[in-house]
Amino acid sequence: MQDPLLAPVGRFANGGLLLSRIIICILFIWGGINKLQSWEWISQFLFEYGVPFASTMLVLAMMLEFGCGLLILVGFKTRAAAVVLLCVLIPATFLFHQFWKFEGMYAVLQHEQFMANLALVGGLLFLSVAGPGRFSVDARHTVWLEVEGEG
Amino acid sequence: MKDKWIGFESLRQSWVFLLARACLALFFFWSGYFRLLHWDSVLEYTESFSLPFPGLILAVSSGIEVLGGLAILLGRFTREAALLLMIYTLIFMLVFNRFWTFPEQEQFLQTVIFMKRLGVIGALEILRVCGPGRIVLKF
Q1: Subunit contact B120:A116, Cβ cutoff 8 A
Q2: C-alpha span between A98 and B90 (Å, rounded)
């Protein structure tokens, strides 16, 4: 249920939130599908790292990423989906992009991935607070009032 | 001027926004800082894209990133900085991260980077729309 206290104000706020949801979801939906294609080397990596139940975790992560991406796109339980995605993204970042362990060019690449994931974490935090806005399943029962003035 | 912000009634939400702003700002700070630190090798890489004035482009991009990150972190001129960084990231993606033009070997990595920058653009869009929250630097 959309929290009425967080109703976006400003002319393009709701449209902006819809746009940002669409853009962010491209990443996560692509990521979820892509794990299916990169299955072998990710499983291998997890296995070598000693993660228990590697295949199960991978399936879970893939489904969560893809599913929460869809949820955010549609705007259903957006805040919860954003938090779940955070719980998938943060451990994955610390697991796969350990730039402090490497040297040279590879360390730079991993560092770049780590920082990009950090930015995505920030984006998800924004989303978890701001909510989906008006063009979403969450807000279908909210009454939106016209505000006079600077609006 | 009255800032059009989403009605943050709870300070806790502004703290979350501060944390999220710090995450975004860190990304841009690191990016700009790294370019300035390893100027020569990055310049070499930029030159391989056959652009005019690679040094100027590099300097301007580092400046935009550091200043934009600062604006986001401090919460001052945040919406304008977010808009600027969105346009900058879009141009950057379309020039340097065209994954379809890379050879097979590196294409996956470039696609990942492209997608992640897309996510950064989405995050900046939310920031642009919602504003920085209530915990900002006032001067």
Answers
A1: yes
A2: 27
Residue A113 forms contact with B (CB below 8 Å): yes
Task: Tell me if chain A has a CB within 8 Å of the CB of B17.
Answer: yes
Nearest-by-CA chain A residue for B12: A129
ipTM of predicted assembly, 2 dp: 0.88
Of the candidates B63, B78, B61, the residue with the CA atom closest to the CA atom of residue B24: B78
At position B63, the amino acid (one-letter code) is: G
- pLDDT per residue rounded down to tens, chain A (151 residues): 344 434 556 667 778 889 999 999 999 999 988 888 888 878 888 877 777 777 888 888 899 999 999 999 998 888 999 999 999 999 989 988 888 888 777 888 889 999 999 999 999 999 998 888 878 887 777 776 665 555 4
Angle among Cα B85, B136, B83 to the nearest 5 degrees reads 15
Closest Cα in chain A to B9: A5
Asked if A9 and B7 come within 8 Å (Cβ–Cβ), the reply is yes
